[in-house]
Structures are given as C-alpha cells and as structure tokens.
Specification:
Its main location: membrane. One of its GO terms (biological process) is proteolysis. GO terms for molecular function: metalloendopeptidase activity. Keywords: Hydrolase, Membrane, Metalloprotease, Protease, Transmembrane, Transmembrane helix, Zinc. It contains 10 helices and 11 strands. It is an alpha+beta fold. Strands 6-5-7-8 form a 4-stranded antiparallel β-sheet. It has a 3-stranded antiparallel β-sheet with strand order 3-11-4, with no helix packed on it. A two-stranded antiparallel ribbon has the order 1-2. The relative contact order is 0.13.
Length: 383
Amino acid sequence: MPILALLIFILILSILVMIHELGHFLVAKKSGIAVEEFGYGIPPKIFGKKIGGTIYSINLFPFGGFVRVQGEDFSDPGQKTAGNFAFKPPYIRMLVLIAGIFMNVVFGSLLFFVVLASRNFVSAPLMTMGDENYHFPFGKQTKIETVITFVAEGSPAKTAGFDFGDYITGAGLINSNEARITSVSDLQTYVGSKGGQNIIFEVKNMQTDKIQQITATPKYDDALQRSAIGVGLGSAFTLSYTAPLEKPVSGLLHGVNVTLYSMNILGQLINTSVSKKSLGPVSEGFSGPVGIFGVVAGVINAGGDSVVLTLMDITALLSFSLAFFNILPLPALDGGRVVFVLYEIVFKKRPNPRLESLSHSFGLAVLLLLMFLVTFKDIFKPF
C-alpha cells in the first residue's frame, strides 16, 4: 500500500506540474517563440528526441517537468531573432507567463466539476478553521457541527476506533431506535445519559464518504460531570451548487470558494503569528510534498467506494493552490516575472536585466529554503 500511495502521489504532482508547463509550452509555440526543450521530470536527461526544433525529453527524477525557451534568461538573452522570448512584445511575454496558471485553473475546475456532478453538486465537507461565520461567495453552504477534531488517548472513543475528520451522524443503543445527531448539544445530551451502556455510532469519513458503525461505551468524566466518550468536536461546511446557472460552472465556483477560504485561513494564521511573534502558527498553514503524501496515503488506506473521487478532489484543490501560489508577485514565480513585464509596460523601458536575473535567483533560493523547512516540519509531524 505505501508503494501504491507513493506512485499515485508522484503521478498527481507530475500531472499538475506538466499541465502548468503545457500552458507555457502551447502559448509559446502559438506566439512563435522558439521552445528549445519540453521535458518530463528533473534532469539529468535519460531520453530526448528533437521534433520541429524542440527537444522532447524524459528525465531521471519523475517529479513534474519544465519548458525551456530561447531568451528566457534576460541577463544573457542571445541574438535578437524572431523566436527569442526576450525580444517579444510585453503582452506576448505576459500571456506566456500566465498561461501555466490559466491551465491549472482550467484543469482544477474540470476535476471539481466531475467530483461535484457525481455527488449531485454537493461538495465534500470542508473543515472549519478559525472564523465559523465565514461566508462563501458562491453556492449554498450547510454547516455540520459534529466533526471529530480530537480523540483523547485512553478514551472509549480511542479504543473504539474513532478518528480525526470523521463526523457522527447518528447514535443508538443496541436493539433500539437510532437517534439522529445534528449538533454538538444533541450528541452531548444523548451520550451523557447513556453512561456504561454500549452505543452504536454511525460515523462518516469526511474524505471518502465511507459510513461505518462503531460501538463505544461512555464513561463518567469528573471534569465534565457527565458521561462522555472522549472526543473533541468541531464543525465543517458543505457547499451545494444546484442552481441552473451554477451547475455548468460549479467546478470553477468551487475552486474560487476553496481558494478564497484558504487565503482567509492563511491571513488569520499570519495575524496570529504577528501577535505572538512566532512563526509557529503560520507554518502550520503550509504543507510540502511530505504532508501531501500523507494526505494521499491516508485516503488510500481508508479505502471505500469513493477513493478515486476523493483523490480527484485533492488533485483539483492542489491545482488551484498551484495557480494561486504561482500568481503571487514574488521573484522566481510567474507572478514575479509578470511584475517586471508590467514595469516595462508602465515605464516604457525594461528593468535592468542583471537586476531581474539576480532577483529571480534570490527568490528561487528563498523558495527552496522554505520548501526544505516545510518538508522538515512535515517529516517530524505525524500524518
């Protein structure tokens, strides 16, 4: 199973990066820019074939891919030719730069649409983080209050097999009618009155929609002064896009919803970090390859009939995340390169080529350092 999870993880990341690079490639080709190489994976090269002036290569490390165009290094753009990227009009260069972002948005929208259509245009639950009164701009949101956010060690819930991210939809005694559970107070009232009795809980997994029945026996908690099973409860949202005008573009609407929600959460984490003068809170808002692998492995291990849909849901979310990350106006990212093009358009002159090249090199070094730190954090944090 770990090998399968690793292969699927590599496949997901490779597809996302290749889709992004395909956007750059197609617009560059259409604009008459000389594409020197379109490669899958990270060099060194193990295979390459030149077709129509472009080398199509397969490289040793199977993570993502790249596009190399003539004149992309402004500090040494080479000769002024018709296919040189550095000498193309600013609007052409900007189109090439944002094409990868556009492709990630389109790909993520299509995946979200397929997932939503299979679920009658109702999303999988999204965990509430921070502001429980957050309002999504698109779709109809419904709140789920009985999501498990914590399972106490040595508790009846831990022994029974409750897990983070499950949510309780019903509970009942053996050989009795089941009580529907829709709120925290419902659950507390029911469990609090059934100390020492075996209760069958109907539990649904947020990621896979897998429903199972778990039996647990509440015991009296002195601190709470009532019977409990030892779980912390939080809330989540589902989003539905059932209006006639929403359905055809539901994938895009959902992608915008989750991206804006992620930005809102990140903003709260940054504010918390500033107020506490600590990078701890904001670092929790990021996951690197190791953290993403943990999520993929968790979905595969959970099993169920909707594993494929859940993996598509995760891939769509990552595609929008990649688009958002790349549009940030930071050196080395597409958004940072767009800033230099906008400078040229506004001031009618090019930025200093050496300064631009150095800024991108510095930005890349900072991004690699951040990736290393995030990966280090993920390795020493349980999946």
